[in-house]
Task: structure prediction
Amino acid sequence: MTEIVFVLAVARNGVIGAAGGLPWRLPSDLKRFREATWGRPMIMGRKTFQSIGKPLPGRESIVVTRDASFHAEGVHVARDIDEAVAIGAERAAAMGVGEVMVIGGGEIYRALLPRADRIVLTEVDIAPAGDATFPKLDDSVWREVSRSAPERGPRDEAAFTIRVLERKQ
Result:
């Protein structure tokens, strides 16, 4: 069975995005994001894909959209969450990995949260304004399996902590 793994950064106030982008600059965390997603299929919403602007190298992008006219070179298009998960499982098997990564945005996270197996969560130590949020996680559902506080890089706008959570059985 293919695991569904969320990879995201969230501010103290639950904000994950603002005006189609990230409301902070954290080059150190982007490097970690690259490592976490490399060689894996990634599910994302159309707006998230458009904010990135292109398929990311070394990964396969699965874009979920209700827009029947949406097409982008180098990506798999899914018309709903179930189709995205099916494509993700198929691509993960073809790539020889056991995970499909979910990278946003807010609607996609909310839709897939009941199916998520693991969450790689960067907690950003700021509280910016934003228009995309992530729900507060229920401690009765999730258990922390690791936590680290990487040294803040010279170009990082905030300190951050990385937590890995797994769904309780």
